[in-house]
Design a protein that fits this description.
single chain; alpha/beta; Rossmann fold; 3-stranded parallel beta sheet; 12 helices; 10 strands; about 15% strand
């Protein structure tokens, strides 16, 4: 992520260590530390704050004047980050790789092509996330459109993940977009493998970790765009003047080794349209 961010900074004319300094803060999976980390950055008088995943909440709570550039896989309006995509207002703007209900509908359509006899799909959600309810609503509509039954499996914390996989009763699984899941790709992929569940992910990083298939936009591109916006803000632009960057490309990534292990034959039509096939 940091490499993609620095690439965007360079595109905007800034190079770390030459004409801009970047200070990094990590909560190390302890979200209760985020408010203090954000307050520390504000106290240091930084020119801008880049907030990945759910860290925008702490950043927004710490300052109403320092520009905040977020990266997210969530809907920025429905989650309250900004009032409008085109006119963010206040001191926040950024980039998202989320595309609303259309993405889950396409994911379920692809799952049905991979597993033609699928009748019941489970969806892993993180209920405390501000995006959980909107995604669940979108998923209900998408499941109806695709003729499958949908069960929600709610994960409150990391220790719940393994227990949840043991309890899942479904033909396939789809993962809701959430930074909570981003950082637990290995554990989630392992759970799917253990249960031999064909699983649809929202970013390619899960498939690179051994997952079956992903369909969605690039999280790395959102960080690159955040770097571009950080550079523009350093050059004088205001967050309210910078529309939230929406994804323009969606990629289908398939792991053939995982498919073989699950006994799945990938339809030739999917192989020819896939953006990347991992062997």
């Amino acid at each position: 992520m940091a490499v993609a961010f620095r690439s965007g900074l360079q595109d905007a004319g800034y190079e770390e260590g030459r004409n801009v300094a970047v200070e990094y803060r990590w909560a190390e999976d302890h979200n209760d530390r985020l408010p203090a980390l954000a307050a520390d950055l504000v106290a240091r008088g930084v020119a801008a704050i880049v907030a990945g995943g759910g860290t925008w909440v702490a950043a927004k709570g710490a300052t109403t004047s320092i520009p905040i550039i977020f990266t997210t896989g969530l809907d920025p309006v429905r989650t309250g980050m900004v009032k409008s995509i085109n006119r963010p207002e206040a001191n926040l703007t950024g980039a998202t790789f989320y595309s609303g209900g259309a993405i889950i509908a396409k994911q379920l359509e692809l799952l049905r092509q991979l597993v033609p006899k699928v009748a019941v799909v489970a969806m892993l959600v993180h209920p405390s996330s501000t995006s959980a309810e909107p995604q669940m609503q979108d998923a209900v509509v998408a499941a109806r459109q695709n003729g499958v039954a949908l069960h929600f499996v709610k994960i409150a914390d990391a220790p719940d993940i393994d227990a949840a996989f043991t309890a899942i009763q479904a033909d396939a699984l789809v993962i809701a977009v959430d930074p909570f899941f981003d950082s637990r790709a290995t554990q989630i992929v392992a759970g799917s493998a253990r249960r031999r569940l064909p699983t649809m992910y929202y970013i390619r990083e899960f498939v690179e970790a051994g997952g079956l298939v992903s369909y969605g936009a690039s999280i790395l591109e959102s960080y690159r765009q955040a770097g571009v916006y950080a550079g523009r803000i350093l050059a004088g632009a205001k967050p309210a003047e910078l529309p939230v960057v929406l994804p323009t490309k969606f990629e289908l990534v398939i792991n053939l080794k995982t498919a073989k292990g699950l006994g799945l034959m990938i339809p030739p039509s999917l192989l020819t349209t896939a953006d990347d096939v991992i062997e």
